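Field: sequence (string)
Field: structure_tokens (string)

Example rows 1 and 2, in order.
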Amino acid sequence: MADKVTKSNFLSESHNNVVELLKNNVSNPAGLKKWVYSRRPDIKSLSFKGFPFVVVYPTTLSFPKRMSLNGQKKSVSFGIEIEIISQDSINTKGKGLYYLDALSDSIIEQLNGESNRQTLRQNGLFFSNPEVSSVSVEDWHNSLIYTRTILLTLKNVTGVF
């Protein structure tokens, strides 16, 4: 797993913790080796590994105005968006929606699993239940692209700068 989140690595390590959790605990239903990205891959490129895939976008960060009563600690909030993208085409044999649901279920299961929550807590991240969007469908070159977003809201209590 990634390193502990501190005041000097809020953005990088909160993102790394989520990426590592997914890579180590969630399997791609289509058996792809490269499938977790930090940005959308170029799906027209020859090096594109295929559908389905997951994008873990960079972390957003918010510092609340309130501190602890003694002024020593504040709770920092993080938002991490996980996008799951799959495709119905001849190559996926019409399993695009199945892949989308399978990956979504597995990601939610791992995020809510006690062991993974404990690991994230040990690395300084506490979060509420993930928010899951509805599925959007796009027609693209005689295939359907399915997209679903999971939004994580995480917190870290840290010493004041």
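Row 2 begins here:
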Amino acid sequence: MTEANTTYLELLEKRIELLDSLASALLASRSAMAAFDVNSLEARIAQQQALCAEIQFLDEQIEHLPDPRAAHLRPNGPEQSGASSPKLAVILRRLHQAHEAVKQLNSAHRALVARSRCTVNALLNSLQAFEGNYRDAALRQTANPHRSDEAINHG
């Protein structure tokens, strides 16, 4: 195996690792959203951004390889890769599976964010609609804190 082939396979393996890490980060952010853990969610988003940047940098390295097979990196699946060695075919199949898993998780994550956005907007609209009622009651209570006690005692 030539040095270019070895480098190519190593870069493909690294890309699979990064995609697996991205999938884990997407799952972790889903858990953070469900737990309303904003700090964890922000950390997962930063992690996802860093992983995407690493994947992009890795893709640029692969595109600049002298080996013409490097064009087969794109996650089109091994059946379209023209892979000449069984090892390359296995790696490309794993790459395709990792890419599909991230794609599926990303779609689910996008749907969760969209539903969350709708929920938050509905809550904000409700709060705005009742803002005057809640604010007036709070102002009355803070202006005369004993009044609510009197109403309870005499009511």
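free_text_note (row 2): The radius of gyration is 27 Å.
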